[in-house]
Design brief:
Layout lengths: L1 H15 L4 H11 L5 H16 L1 H11 L7 H16 L4 H12 L7 H24 L1 H5 L3 H11 L3 H7 L7 E4 L6 H10 L4 E3 L4 E4 L16 E3 L6 H6 L6 E5 L5 H9 L3 E6 L2 H13 L5 E4 L14 E7 L14 H4 L2 H19 L2 E11 L8 H9 L4 E4 L12 E2 L8 E8 L2
Parallel strand pairs: 5-6, 5-8, 6-7, 8-9
Antiparallel strand pairs: 1-3, 1-4, 2-3, 9-12, 10-12, 11-12
């Protein structure tokens, strides 16, 4: 395990230098094909967990060190070990022993330092927790500007929102109504000993995450993994047989599949990343579903649109992903405050471009996985001021009766925003 600790430390170092966490983890797994499933799972847990709680762990480490070591990798090794001691079920003596063994491979003799720091942590653990709770950054493990933004927007709800972003994400299934009913699939899961809770029409929340290989009929397309909040898109768009529908920024294709599962439509699934479109095609094949898959930029439809208008458009636009940080904890550290304004500008361009493709009386669903108003209702409000023919309709979500369409992350779903726009004659 000491090798896995060192590998995790290297991943953390890459992420905090600007690399995407998924990419950094995938690179290490590809370079170590000999790792067992257990080792691969441990590497993911250590790297994701350390990044998730980074500033809290960093605060605690700062209290334990007179001065930071010159070797940055050693700092990250200590943070990984602190994560294990604070958040994992691993025995403390095992964690300390593994970290000391890993430190012996460093060029300078630092195993004694590692041993002292970790044992001091165990002795001072309660005091360090109390101290870390005093400052918002070390209590919640987000950048200061992020915490301030959430507090300004959500007031007394901000603590719950920030804490939700640090929990492990739920695993939710979407039942394919073309193959079976939600009730029948629940019976299949019960026979397989898999406990679930129904949280929406086709959404089943698993009591415990499992590998998709254990899901009955997964390979046959009977069910897909999709957050319950993301499943709201298909019902809000209200597609019907025969409609021509556009799904922009479609990859990896979960919402496109859901639309096709609900009605016999002519669907165009478009994304600007050809590599990500491969995931769309794979998912469509698994679900035995058909759509036209196009590579193009949503803000420049003149380069790919055939001139035929759409009756429904799903604009799942690029965003900060602030509503899904528990799935992608690196976002908390890689985003900068200026990024939000840049996303909002890009979102406005896409919305403006897509509106031209919508036929009169058609509906466009604007969607993000963000909880920042600047990317959500602010974008819609600006658009409505310059488009008299557009009106925003109230949305009814499965989880909250919120006409604004803002879902906040909780135990049942991630954070999403939906705005349904109708184009009047």
């Amino acid at each position: 395990m000491n090798v896995i600790q060192t590998e995790a430390a290297g991943i953390v170092q890459r992420v905090l230098s600007g690399c995407n966490l998924d990419r950094a983890l995938a690179d290490r797994l590809a370079a170590n094909q000999q790792y067992t499933p257990q080792q691969r799972g441990a590497l993911q847990d250590l790297s994701y967990g350390t990044i998730r709680h980074y500033s809290r762990l960093e605060f605690m480490l700062g209290k334990l060190l007179d001065r930071p070591p010159r070797d940055k990798l050693l700092v990250y090794l200590l943070l990984v070990a602190l994560y294990q001691l604070e958040y994992s079920k691993a025995g403390s003596h095992v964690v300390v022993d593994q970290a000391v063994r890993a430190a012996k491979k460093f060029k300078s003799p630092v195993s004694g330092l590692v041993n002292a720091v970790l044992r001091n942590f165990l002795r001072q653990q309660e005091e360090l927790r109390f101290a870390a709770d005093v400052e918002a950054k070390s209590r919640f493990s987000y950048q200061g500007w992020w915490i301030k933004e959430i507090e300004q927007q959500y007031g007394e709800r901000s603590s719950a929102i920030l804490e939700a972003g640090n929990r492990h994400p739920p695993m939710t299934l979407r039942v394919n109504r073309r193959c079976t009913t939600t009730e029948n699939y629940m019976l299949l899961l019960a026979e397989a000993g898999i406990e679930v809770q129904r949280v929406a029409a086709e959404a089943l929340l698993l009591a415990h995450p499992i590998s998709v290989e254990r899901l009955p009929k997964f390979a046959e397309g009977w069910v897909s993994v999709q957050d319950a909040g993301a499943q709201s898109a298909a019902s809000l768009l209200d597609v019907a047989d025969g409609m021509r529908v556009l799904d922009v920024c479609s990859a990896p294709g979960g919402k496109a599949m859901h639309l096709l599962e609900r009605a016999n439509i002519e669907l165009v699934a478009m994304d600007k990343d050809e590599r990500r479109l491969d995931r769309v095609r794979q998912n469509l094949r698994r679900g035995n579903l058909s759509a036209e898959v196009l590579c193009g930029d949503a803000s420049e439809p003149n380069k790919w649109w055939d001139g035929k208008p759409f009756q429904r458009i799903l604009a799942d636009v690029p965003c900060s992903a602030s509503g899904v940080v528990r799935r992608h904890p690196d976002i908390k550290w890689l985003r900068r405050t200026g990024d939000i304004a840049e996303f909002a500008e890009q979102q406005s361009r896409i919305l403006e471009a897509m509106w031209q493709l919508l036929e009169p009386n058609g509906k466009l669903l604007y969607a993000t996985c963000s909880i920042f108003r600047q990317e959500n209702q602010d974008v819609i409000d600006r658009f409505l001021k310059t488009h008299d023919e557009a009106c925003q309709e109230a949305v009814e979500l499965s989880f909250v009766n919120d006409p604004i369409g803002q879902l906040l992350p909780c135990d049942r779903h991630d954070g999403f925003f939906y705005a349904l726009l109708r184009k009047n004659n």
